[in-house]
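Lecture 7 notes: from sequence to structure.

We start with a single chain of 128 residues. Read the sequence below before looking at the structure.
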Amino acid sequence: MIKKLPEAEFFIIKICPSADELDERCYIRFDKMINEGAVQEVQRLLELHLPNTLPAMKALGVPELARYLKGECSLEQAVEEAKLHTRQYAKRQRTWFKNKLKADMELNCCYAGDCTDILQRIERFRKR
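Now the structure, written as tokens:
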């Protein structure tokens, strides 16, 4: 249980896009990483001969792109596997937050789509 300061008042907002929207964002994000030099970054990591047990070597996309760079699969296969693992990670995060909110936090509002009135609700809360 989270202990709150006696004088503190919290307004907790959960923004939860649909699973399809979140998956699409994962795809777009990974494609952007590829276009901005992720393959070259992983190549530099491999050149350092770091142990695979280090967190940097386990980061999303690194093991898959390393396999590509070692000639074990195509770039397309590596990207698809990395996108799959990214989606799976995002799903684990959604599950964790869902359970955490049930157990420890009182939610003031949840948004699954349009979030245009969030700032208005926050401002009303601040003025209380």
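The mean pLDDT is 85. Keep this in mind for problem set 3.
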